[in-house]
Each structure stands twice: as C-alpha cells, then as structure tokens.
Amino acid sequence: MTTIDEFDERILQELKANGRISNAELAGRIGLSPSACLRRVQELERSGVIKGYGAIIDNSLLGIGFTAYITVGLSVHTKKSQNDFEKAIVKSPEVRECHNVTGSFEYILRVETKDLASYKFFHTDVLGTLPQVNSISTYVVMESAKDERQ
User: Fold this and answer.
1) Inter-helix orientation angle 23-30/6-17, to 10°
2) Which helix (H) or strand (E) holds 110?
3) Domain boundaries defined on the chain
4) pTM score, two decimals?
5) Long-range CB contacts (< 8 A, 24+ apart) of 43-50?
6) What is the CATH code of the structural domain delimited by 65-140?
7) pLDDT tens digits, one per residue of 14-72
C-alpha cells in the first residue's frame, strides 16, 4: 500500500476535479513548487495510485439515453462459471461496469444503451442467452442526484 500525505491527498482531489489542470496551477493550489508538485504527481502515477486520466462524456450527444443497473444470479456457483460469465460480459459494449458482489446475487452490471428497445435486445438476446445466468433483475435509472463519474 502506498502511503500518502496531506499534499498527495490535495493533489488527488484537484486532479479528480480537473485532470487537465497545468502543473503550475496545481502546484499553486496546493502550496508546493512546480518541481515538487510534478515529482509527487509522477510518483503517484508510477506507484499506480493514479491509474490514468479521462474525459467526461455527454452520452446523450452520442445517442445513449438509457441506463440500468442489473443484478445477475448465476445458476452454478463455480469459478469456471464466473470466469465464463465475465468473459462474455467483457465482450458486451453495453456493459460499462461489472462487479462481482456478495449477497443474494453474484453480479451488478451498469448497462448503457440507446433506448429501451436496445436494452430489451441486450437483456433477451445477449444476457438472457448466457448459460451461466439464472436470474436477471433490472433497475432503470430515472435520474442521478449524484454521480462522481461525471
């Protein structure tokens, strides 16, 4: 585990808010010299604390207007069944997140599609045809009061 101090914590918070901030501005906001700030950012990157930088995308402008969370129960509870399910899910572009969880089902998926009809196709012709799947429950996102991915 990487140990981080108050400066590293502040760097991470600033980069979460704006990954394109210049090193000079970042250094000024956290109270370090630009060279010291750059060394810290590079160390956070090298150690894997910072895994990368990304863009915030407006999905509606790309024709993606439907988001759902889906719980999936498997019919067989073996490592092979999990691996086979995960291999199939990784190939599905509609699945934006796949989490193996504890509880009354094995997986939670976040799925984004163009619309309800596109989701129905994914539900029936993709997810519903996987031999490992025993149960599917869909929770349609109507609105998001908080979403830190944005």
Assistant:
1) 130
2) strand 107-113
3) 6-46, 65-140
4) 0.81
5) 44/2, 44/4, 44/8, 44/11, 44/12, 47/2, 48/2, 49/2, 49/4, 49/8, 49/12, 50/12, 50/15
6) 3.30.70.920
7) 999 899 999 999 999 999 999 999 999 999 999 999 999 988 888 889 999 999 999 99
| Residue whose tokens read 């899910």 | 89
Q: What pLDDT, on a 0 to 100 scale, did the predictor assign at position 150?
A: 61
DSSP lists the bridge partners of residue 137 as: 71
Q: What is the DSSP letter of 62?
A: G
d(CA 6, CA 131): 49
pLDDT digits (tens, 9 = 90+) for 60-106: 899 999 999 999 999 999 999 999 999 999 999 999 999 999 999 99
| Rounded Cα–Cα distance for residues 41 and 26 (Å) | 10
What topology does CATH give the domain 6-46? Arc Repressor Mutant, subunit A (1.10.10)
Residue 101 sits at φ, ψ, to 5 deg, of -130, 170
Rounded CA-CA distance 63/68 in Å is: 15
CA dist., res. 112 & res. 114, Å (int): 7
Residues 6+ apart with CB under 8 A from 86: 98, 100
